[in-house]
Each structure stands twice: as structure tokens, then as C-alpha cells.
Amino acid sequence: MALRTPTRAPLLLMGLLTTGVAKLPIPALAPRGFWALSKNLTVVEGNAVELRCGVSAPGSVVQWAKDGLLLGPDPRIPGFPRYHLEGDPTRGEFHLHIEACDLSDDAEYECQVSRSEMGPELVSPRVILSILVPPKVLQLTPEAGSTVTWVAGQEYVVTCVSGDAKPAPDITFLQSGQTISDISANVNEGSQEKLFTTEATARVTPQSSDNGQLLVCEGSSPALDTPIKASVTMNVLFPPGPPVIEWPGLDEGHVRAGQSLELPCVARGGNPLATLQWLKNGQPVSTAWGTEHTQAVARSVLVMIVRPEDHGVQLSCEAHNSVSTGTQEHSITLQVTFPPSAITILGSASQSENKNVTLSCVTKSSRPRVLLRWWLGWRQLLPTEETVMDGLHGGHITMSNLTFLVRREDNGLTLTCEAFSEAFTKETFKKSLTLNVKYPAQKLWIEGPPEEQSHRAGTRVRLVCLAIGGNPDPSLTWYKDSRTVTEPRLPQEPRRVQLGSLEKSGSTFSRELVLVTGPSDNQAKFTCKAGQLSASTRLVVQFPPTNLTILANASALRPGDALNLTCVSISSNPRVNLSWDKEGERLEGVIAPPRSAPFRGSAAAMSVLLRVSSRDHGHRVTCRAHSAELRETVSSSYRLNVLYPPEFLGEQVLVVTAVEQGEALLPVSVSANPAPEAFNWTFRGYRLSPAGGPRHRVLAGGALQLWNVTRSDDGLYQLHCQNSEGTAEALVRLDVHYAPTIRALQDPTEVNVGGSVDIVCTVDANPILPGMFNWERLGEEEEDQSLDDMEKMSKGATGRLRIHHAKLAQAGAYQCIVDNGVAPPARGLVRLVVRFAPQVEHPSPLTKVAAAGDSTSSATLHCRARGVPNIVFTWTKNGVPLDLQDPRYTEHTYHQGGVHSSLLTIANVSAAQDYALFTCTATNPLGSDHTNIQLVSISLDQTSGESDDQLPTEQQPAGPLGLPLLPVLFAVGGLLLLSNASCVGGFLWQQRLKRLGKGISEKTETGSEEDRVGNEYEESQWTGGRDTRSSTVSTAEAEPYYHPMRDFIPQLPPTLEEVSYSQGFAGLEDEDMAFPGHLYDEVERTYAPPGAWRPLYDEAQMGPSDLHWPEDKYEDPRGIYDQVAGDLDPMEPDSLPFELRGHLV
Fold it and tell me: Domain named Ig-like: which ranges (predicted)?
């Protein structure tokens, strides 16, 4: 075949450009041409295909063209992954192999050979490759796989559409396996070029036989090995067949009353299956049915018990379903046969002997009618009349009347009315009764104890009533005094009567009566009756009083009322004797006249008169009835109810003792009727709340309970009891015991040498005991602690330690110890001060002091004395009082316990004015003493050659006059030693006080310090200031001030006076201080203030904000009452001593 012109140029160009082209190693002499070519091919989509090309063209390039598109000589054919060349190129095999063909491979193919030196180009004939595409799916309307519900006989349209395919598929419909001829089909273009779809429509008229069958759409194509299918299931609705009642016998409708009738009703076919219901005379009686789908049957069974009234009833079975055009039914009319439901004999079968009995036998309605006949035992009786009437439900009623004479031998025979019929040959219907011929008993009597025999109440007595013969059986009824005897109806009633049942033994009948005799049975007549026959007997019963009653003329009694009590014995047999007693004490009574008594017994009565008092309340007055013959006593008591106001009993506690901070119970022993309505407690005029308080409550019996008791609770508590009859009051004292507290201690206690004095210790304590005071003397030496020469006394709350002929050795610290048995004991310190007149030291009859009189030197004069109280020094010059206002004179006073010193310094000594005789006078209230000091010139002293003890205090240095320096130095040294003697003594005295205070703190529980022992009295004075140029300084360490406190008992709060005076003296050298002077004359020490000594006894501490006395009354914060009087009387500020007002400066 010649090549086409349009393709030659590309082939030549391709042959020139291709490198490595396939060259055919064919011999040069072989002819050029195709030796193997494929014809047109058809292949199903997805399969592989091979287009053969065998060519003889050595040196030429071979390639395939698809619809004119050259695929290239590369065996792998780039761009077409499913295409490649197969075969041996050396042999000229260039086959095109296509894998998994699809619609894009549907084309015309050519095998082309390029021009070569051996010849021109070659082109193979066109090979057409057709790709077949099978339909993938069929779309069925209605939806494939579903169930469609159709009504039989109606026409329905079904559509089936195929998917894309090549060529267009053929569609057919199958109905229940049969091909449908009425089909219309259309071929349409598919979703791509070269693809087609087929749409087919069928008209379907379902029948009942199609129910449950398939309607199938089949699609066939050359590309398919087997057709594809889509189907729906047809659910065809059609009416059921007519119902059929299956009668269980040959005679349809004939049935016997009482028979259990089961009638099945069956309806076959139908979709859905039939709905069945039973009707009785047109009224539904059953709507229950069942279905059997495998057999397509609906079944309903009517179960009924046939009754006579069902005669003529029409039973119908109806069948229908949802597509039924009407209701189908089957009916049967019942013909019911029934016997008489009952036979009744009218009239009484009981008659006295030898009299006629008339009876009627009547049957209920029956179908058919029955006949009647009478039987007496085995003897048939002829009826006097028979009647037939129409009855219910189409039946008949039969009645037969009978009259005959009864005899005694007929008693107990059976009289029977029998009904019979040919329709009920196997059944007999009877009604029977027993003939009762009445005739009386022949004999009646009672068996029991003799009538004259006596019976004690409570004795069992047996009476038996017997009778012979009689019909009916004699009833044997017991009577007591014409009343029928019966047993107690209620179980809780005492069973005093036991009535036996009627017993029969042959022709003998008996009935027993058992009595537990009581008062009512005395002389009672017991009768047994049987018809017209009767028998009687009597009982004699002895019994104690049936009722012993006490009658009172008053119910509410009050002390002093007269009460008349009458004891009545209602009845007894024999008569009883009455007596009275009250709580075992016999009373004399008055016998009342006799009265009538029930139960044919004897009555008795006795009265007693009482005058009641409150002590009689609750007592029992007892009446006793004694029967000597019965040896039995019956008692009855009357409890006295005496109304009286509250009365406190003798055991009422009047004094209750409690310990402070503990609990107390004030008991109440009171008697009253009615019981007290209220218990009111008052204390110091204030009423305690009955509801209770923080520290008290009133108990149920009226007792008052207190807790956290304080001494302020001590006193009389008034109890007020009240009821409707009156009131009563009682006083109960609460004695609160508390530990002693020292209220007054005269510190210091002062006495003159050789005098007598009492150290007084006053305490507040409860109880006050005679031997609760004890005294100790505090000292370093054991012999200093002896109190043998002192007398101890106590009276009440005051203890005294009496010192006779006071000696200086007895001065010192004493401790008052008080112990009343309530812990802790109280302790207090007091100092005994022994006073004596001043004693001035006289080194020599006349002391001389030398000083230069050049108006530039100074001289110091030293005066020292002993004495208590403090000494006041005065100076005179040549008998004239020294003017200390002169600035040249400066006087300093020092106090060291009982040692006092005065230093007079003279500045700018002038020979004309100061060379004189100076006199130092020491004075205290007990007397005075003095010494003289001569101030002389230094030169005069040397020339005189006198040997003086007091050296000059100041000397001019050696000058041109050539005065010796050594005497001057000795004079100055002596003056310095003398001036510092007081300082050294003060230091030693301070060390002794410290050792003494340490000993005191070890001996006392309160740890009190004693700063001074021995006969020391401290009074610090500053006798001059910047103007006076004189001063008085105390060298004692932290000595306190004591202020007059006559008759002032209460504890005092801390004041600023507690500040240690050592702090006040710290700056003595830098500033002047003024203290109150001359306190000694007005001091009468009653207690030690808390500043100098640590607390010596129990007292309430107060804070810095409480440095003033309260203006209102003292009130215990733990008080249990609204207002409680304080321990102390109110004190106005002006009543305090002046020294205790305000603050010290």
C-alpha cells in the first residue's frame, strides 16, 4: 500500500533526527514490506490487547500512529505508560501492546516504516480498535432492593435506567419470573463521548399471586458475560377469603346448657391476613384472633359456656382487612336444651303427729318440659294436682301438689320430689327433705347437792338436768329466778357460769350447769325447763361483804376541819363486824342502824369523826369488816387529802457551808398540798431569777445551786414558797469560807525604850479560829528569832504580839502568819522600831577645829549623834543661832539608820567673825543632846600646844612664813577620813541589809523583801535648797515612806510611791530634791504599802490605769445577782490621807 503524501515528510525528518534508531539487519536482497498485521479488534474495557506489526525493512525506523498521532519509535513510548512495543526488532517484530484498555484507547492505529536506502516508506492498513464499556449499574424506580406495596389489580409504572455503556445495553423486565412485554425503551448519550444509556419503562398490574415475588430489571451488553439485575419485592395487598365457622358436630346450632362450646372461625388468604371478630346478636363478644403466615390463615376461637338464656342467640364471625371492600361473615343460631336449674318444695315438713302435711313441688324452667313424682322413703305418693306453665328462655315450668297424714313412725323419713324427661335420660333431678314429726318428752328432773347444804362463795356447784324422750330433742333451758342462764359474752369477764351443751344418750337427754357460787346465788331458784315440763332447786351461799364502801361528808379538807366517814357493808352472809383504824391506830366508831341488803344477806354500817391537820395528809383511814364464821376480813381505805400551805420540815438545813470558788447547794425540805407552785429566792433584797443565771440555778425541787462562790455571796438567803393555800418563808445562811487576807498591819510599830506595845495584825477571814495567828521574828541569828519574852494574843479577826519593857535588841522585822484551814495562809511583815533620845558623840570635852582666818580658807565642822526617830540638828555660834541664810554657811545632814551626822561648812573664814564656839544640838521628840566645837586659828592652835582630836580641815600651804607642811597634810587627811566615815558605814550597812533581805525572802512564801532590820527609823529630809544652802540626805538604800492610815482597812492599789527611792537619789549630786519632812510625829503604821515591800498578803492587783479610787460602790464582777452590796463602804477622795492623794513629785 502506497504511503500517504502528508505523512512522508514527518517520517523522513524523524528518520534523520532519531539516533540509535532500529536498523534492520535484514539481508539487502530481502524485499521490503509487512509480513504480519492485525485486523480490526474489539476488547472489553480493562483487558489488554496487542496490535501486531511484522515488517521487512532493513535500516528503516518503525513506529505506530494513533488516529494520526505518531507514538515514536521508542519501545517504551513515552507519555503513554500503558503502551509499549513488544517483539524482536532484529526480526522485524514491532507489536503495540496496550495494558488495561479504557475508552481513550478506542481509535484507528497504523504501523509506519520510514524511508531508507533500501526503499521508500511503508504504511500499514488502518486497524480499528473498539473498546466495549459494560454498564456498571441499573437505577430502578422504585428503589432497587426495597419492598413496594401495591394493591392487586391496579396498574403501576416502573422505570429502569442503565449506567454509561458502549454499546447501549438492552433492558428487559421480569414479573414473578415472567417477561413483561409492555416495555418502552430509549437510548440516550452518556456522560462521555462514545458512551450511551438506556431508559426503559414498564407498566405492571400486580395480582395476588405476585405477593412476595420479585420484579426484576435486567441489563445485557456484549461487554457483559451475564446481565446485571436490579429488583424490588412486591407486597401485594388483596382481601381475604370468606370466614368459615367449624361446628364441632353434625347438628349445627344444637347445644346443651352448661356445655363448654369452642367454635373456630377460619379466614384464608388476604394480605394483610384477615381481622376476625365474633358477634352475639350483633354485639361484639370477642376481638381476639391469631394468624399463621406460613399458611396464610387467620383464626379466632370463641369459647363460651352455654347457658339457658343463650337459646335462639345468633353467633356471627366477621372477616375483613384494609383492602376489603366490605365485611364477610358466617352466622349460626343456637338451639339450647336445658334441664330445670332447681326443684323447690314449698311447705313445712315439720308437723305434730296425726296431722296432715301439704307440700308443693315446683321446677325451674326447662327445655323440653319434665314430669314430677313423689317418694316417702321407698313408697311413692300420688300427687293431688299437676300444672305446666311457660318458663324463661323458651322453656316450661312444672308444679305438683301433695297432701298426706303423718304418724310418729314417719319421723325422720325422706320425702323426695323427682323430675324426669326423655331428653335427660341419663340424669335425675331431685329435691328431698326429712319429715319431722313432733311429740313431747316423757320425764324431767335435776341432780345436784341438797337444798339445805351451805356453800362458801367461790365454791363450784354442779347441777345436771335430765329428760327422757321427745321430738324435737328437748332444749333443756336453765333459768335463775326466771332469767335465762347464759355464759359471759366477753372473754375478760370472770367465767362464773359454765353452761354445758345438750347431750344425748339413747333416748335420755342431759345438760350440765356448773356454778362458781357468788353472793347473787344465795337463795336463788335454779329451774330447768323442757317444753311444758320443769324442775327446780335452791342454793344457800355464805359470802363476805360484797362491797365495802367509805362515804365522806367532804372531799377538800383543810387543817382543823371535821371529817365524818361512814363505812357501809352492802351485803354479807352471815353479818360482819366493822372497825376503824388510821395508820395502825384504832379509832372508835358509831354503829349505824341496819338497812336492807341485796342477795338476801345482811348489811352493816359504822361512822367515825376525825379532826384533820396537815400531818394527816396522805394518811389512810381503813375500815375493816370481819366475819368470824367465814374467818375472813375485807378492808377498804380512804386517803386523806388535806390542803395546806407550804410548811418547812424539821430537817430543813438552815446553814450551808461552802468554800470560796467552789459550789454550794441550798437544799429545800418543804411539805405542801398542793405542791408549791413557785420557789423564789432573794438575797440582800434582790430576787434571784428562777430561770437561772451565770452562777446559779433553781433546781426542780426548789433547791438553789451556786457555783464559783465568792465571799460576797455569804449571807442570808430568803426562800419564799407559795401554793394555792398560802405561802411560807425560810432563811438559809450561806457561810462562805475563804483564805485569810491581812487587812491591817501597823507597820512600823513604835515603842519607846522600856515601854510596852502591841503589834496588831487584823485579817479578813472565814472561819475565824482561835489559834490561827502565829508570829515569827526575822533575823540573821537564831537567838534573834526567839519570842519567849513576848506575849501572843488573839481575839476574833485581830492578833496581837505584846512586847513588855522594850529593848533595843528587840527592834527588827516580824512576820504575822494567819492560817484558818483554807489555803493559802496569809503572811505580813511589820517592823518594830524602839525609840530613844539623841546621844551626841563627844570625842573630847571640847573639840577644836583650826582654820586660817584670811577670808579665803574654809572650815568644816562635824557633829554626829544616835537616836530614833530621826534627829534634827541645830547650830549656834557663841550661843546665838547660826544664820544659815548666810551664803558663807552650808549645812548638810546625813542619816544612816539610827546614826545621824551634820556637816557645817564655813567658807571664807574670817578671824573676826568665825573664831568662836560653835554648838551642835541634836533633837528628836524624846529629847536632845549637844556638843561644842571651837574654831581657832592655825597659828593659835600651834602656839597653844594643845593636843586636839579634831585636826584642821584646811591649811594654808607653806609660804614665806615657813609653816610646817606635815601638820597641814595630817589635818587634811584626817578631815577627809572623817567626812567619808559615813559613806563607808553606809556601804557596810547596805551589805547587811541585803543579807538580811535574802534571809527574809527564803523564810516567807510571798518573797517579801525587808530592807531594814534592827532599831532603824528612816526619815529623809532636805533642810535647805539653793537658798538655804543646807540639806538632809538619807544614805539608806531605797527606804520607803509610810503614811498615816488610821482605821483604813481595804487594800490599796499600787501608787507611784512604789518607785524605788534609789532611783530618786541617783541624781542627788546634780539636782536638789525636796521630800516631805517630819512625818514621824503623825505616823501610826497599820500596814506596809506595796512599794517598799513585795506583797506580804493576798490582795487584788490593779493596773496603772487604776491608780485612783473608784467613785461608785464595790461590785464583784462574778456576782450572781443584779445588785450586790460591796465589801467596802463608799469612800470619798477627801477621806484619804493627804499623802495618798495624787502623785508624788
Answer: 27-130, 135-233, 242-333, 340-434, 440-540, 544-635, 740-821, 838-939
pLDDT tens sequence across 776-827: 988 766 666 778 888 999 999 999 999 999 988 888 899 999 999 999 999 9
Q: Is 316 helix (H, G, I), strand (E, B) or coil?
A: strand
Distance between CA atoms of residues 1040 and 648, nearest Å: 59
Q: Which amino acid is at 327?
A: T
DSSP state of 368: S
Question: Which residues fall within 8 angstroms of residue 527, CB to CB, at 6 or more apart?
Answer: 478, 479, 480, 482, 534, 535, 536
Residue whose grid cell is 362464773: 496
CA distance 1012 to 992: 9
In whole angstroms, what is the distance from residue 954 CA to residue 707 CA? 79
Give the 3-state secondary structure percentages of the chain, helix then strand then coil, rounded to 5: 10, 45, 45
Q: Which residues contact 118 (CB under 8 A, 6 or more apart)?
A: 28, 32, 57, 58, 59, 60
DSSP 458-476: T-EEEEEEEEE--BS----
Q: What is the DSSP letter of 687?
A: E
For the chain, the residue count is 1145
Instruction: Share the mean pLDDT of the chain.
Output: 79
Count of CB atoms situated within 10 Å of the CB of 376: 16
Q: Phi and psi at residue 650, in whole multiples of 5°? A: -65, -25
Partnered with residue 759 across adjacent β-strands are 801
* Angstrom distances, CA of residue 903 to CA of 179, 862, 887, 968, 1088: 166, 5, 15, 21, 33
> Which three cell numbers mark 188?
440516550
Site of grid cell 440555778: 697
Which helix (DSSP H) or strand (DSSP E) does residue 979 occupy?
helix 965-1003
> Residue 149 forms beta bridges with which residues?
235
Q: Which residue has the higher pLDDT, 976 or 1086?
A: 976
Whole-model pTM over 0.85? no
Question: Residue 741 is placed in which grid cell?
Answer: 487576807
Secondary structure of residue 975 in the 3-state scheme: helix
79-109 per-position pLDDT tens digit: 999 999 999 998 989 999 999 999 889 999 9
> Distance between CA 365 and CA 394 in Å, rounded?
8
Of 271, 178, 175, 183, nearest in space to 232 by CA: 175
Structure-derived torsion over alpha carbons of residues 749, 753, 755, 756, reported in degrees to the nearest 10: 40
Taking alpha carbons only, the member of 965, 942, 955 closest to residue 856 is 955
Q: Name residues whose C-beta falls within 8 Å of residue 874's C-beta, 6 or more positions apart in sequence.
A: 881, 882, 920, 921, 923
Report the alpha-carbon angle 10-13-17, nearest 5.
135
DSSP 8-state code for residue 349: S
**Best-predicted range by mean pLDDT (281-285, 289-293, 731-735, 1139-1143):** 731-735
CA-to-CA dists, residue 816 to 422, 781, 800, 1060, 1096, angstroms: 144, 19, 9, 25, 9
Peptide bond into 748 cis (omega under 30): yes
Task: Kindly state the cell numbers that stand for 829.
Answer: 511583815
Question: Helical H runs in 926-964?
Answer: 938-944
